[in-house]
Design a protein that fits this description.
- By secondary structure, this protein is α/β, with parallel strands linked by helices.
- The protein has two domains: 39 residues, no CATH class; 245 residues, Rossmann fold, CATH 3.40.50.
- It contains 16 helices and eight strands.
- It has an eight-stranded mixed beta sheet with strand order 1-2-4-3-5-6-7-8, sandwiched between helices.
- A hairpin with a 2-residue loop joins strand 1 and strand 2.
- The two termini are 37 Å apart.
- InterPro entries: AB_hydrolase_3, AB_hydrolase_fold, Arylacetamide_deacetylase, GDXG_lipolytic_enzyme, Lipase_GDXG_put_SER_AS.
- Its EC number is 3.1.1.71.
- Its main location: membrane.
- Keywords: Cell membrane, Endoplasmic reticulum, Glycoprotein, Hydrolase, Lipid degradation, Lipid metabolism, Membrane, Microsome, Signal-anchor, Transmembrane, Transmembrane helix.
- Belongs to the 'GDXG' lipolytic enzyme family.
């Protein structure tokens, strides 16, 4: 309980005044939270004898590269590589924030490899599909002989990974790159940490169970989606009510609902006693206002089975006390049904963003355990 109180205090200390300032017409919805987060950024690359850090760009997209130099005095050898996308609802955060910076640093050290942290443009300066396009652009540039050779990365041992909204980008990138016949070098694995993968159902069991649990509240996730999809912030209530699910849904919605049907895709233990939420009336025009809701580039859970069959083996971390828990679990089920090798790493005492709490001023046991198991999986499978 003490850790939840700490997290709630840290989260709301920036978000509440940020939303208040927006309501008063003084700023955009997340401006104050962004400004506060910028104070936590590492200023300039800081290397050590074990890890070399450089700022660079790939395909015009900014990034930080963390290279292990542990065996620099030995014969040149090829190393593991990880392309990483940070979380923050496509709106907040940076790979230069201390938690992400030290996470990528530690990953490079633990894997004796190279971690490339992508600095995609945040909303509202960029909106979907801009972040997705930047993620694809950077990944394509990295997965070339020239770039991989420059960093001594083994082209057969490159992973794509990310957390939360970054895991959304990682999953979407894994799907697109698997299908791209023009890219001879592919990601070997994908590692998704508490991913957000759909915005059609804000009433899955995990959303109902954890709607008011920090660090990610249910209305906050809806606001992040609206920022990403360039929707009116006033549509939060419609999203939370599942208003796209009208009594007479379109064929598109019917097809999409099959891929997000948690009564079929979730293990029974996670369904508990929750029931699907269907509005009495709904809003037939909601999809016209938010066409991105059905776009697989924004919602990887909606991918066709033939696409899922092509993606690399997956590691999916989920947390019991997280509104996004069921997104990850449903995706794991769909991947398994498509014949993809999937490892689900579930934490009964986990909460959204818990892995980041292996670093920084607030450190929790679940943070250390989740980071250890995540890097162990990468070691074993990359």
């Amino acid at each position: 309980m003490r850790c939840y109180n700490i997290i709630r205090s840290v989260t709301m200390s920036t978000l509440r005044p940020s939303f208040l300032a927006h309501d008063l017409g003084l700023s955009r919805p997340f401006d104050i939270a962004k400004y506060a987060a910028s104070w936590d950024e590492i200023k300039g690359p800081q290397s050590s004898p074990a890890i070399r850090v450089t700022d660079t760009s790939f395909g015009g997209v900014q990034a930080q590269v963390f290279e292990s130099t542990a065996a620099a005095d030995q014969e040149p050898r090829l190393k593991r590589g990880v392309v990483y996308f940070h979380g923050g609802g496509w709106t907040l955060g940076s790979g230069k924030m201390r938690t992400y910076y030290f996470q990528c640093w530690s990953m490079a050290e633990q894997l004796d490899g190279v971690v490339i942290s992508i600095e995609y443009t945040l909303a509202p300066e960029a909106r979907f599909p801009d972040q997705y396009n930047e993620a694809i652009q950077a990944s394509k540039h990295i997965l070339t002989v020239e770039v991989l050779s420059r960093y001594s990365i083994d082209p057969k041992r490159v992973a794509v990974s990310g957390d939360s909204a970054g895991a959304n980008l990682a999953a979407a990138v894994a799907q697109q790159m698997a299908l791209d016949n023009s890219a001879p070098i592919k990601f070997k694995v994908q590692a998704l940490l508490y991913p957000t993968l759909q915005a059609l159902d804000f009433n899955t069991p995990s959303y109902q169970q954890n709607g008011h649990i920090p660090i990610l509240h249910r209305p906050l996730m809806a606001r992040f989606w609206l920022e990403y999809l360039n929707g009116d912030p006033n549509l939060v209530t419609s999203l939370l009510a599942n208003n796209h699910a009208t009594p007479a849904p379109s064929q598109e919605i019917v097809a999409a609902k099959v891929k997000t049907n948690w009564t079929k895709l979730l293990p029974v233990a996670f369904q508990k006693n929750y029931k699907p939420i269907v509005p009495l009336h709904g809003d037939p025009k909601l999809l016209e206002k938010l066409p991105g809701l059905l776009d697989v580039r924004a919602a990887p859970l909606l991918a066709e089975t033939k696409v899922l069959k092509a993606v690399p083996p997956a590691y999916i971390m989920t947390c019991e006390h997280d509104v996004l828990r069921d997104d990850g679990l449903m995706y794991a089920t769909r991947l398994k049904e498509a014949g993809v090798d999937v490892t689900v790493d579930h934490y009964e005492d986990g909460f959204h963003g818990c892995l980041s709490f292996a670093f920084g001023p607030f450190r929790f046991s679940v943070g250390f355990r989740s980071f250890r198991n995540y890097t162990h999986w990468l070691k074993e499978n990359l």
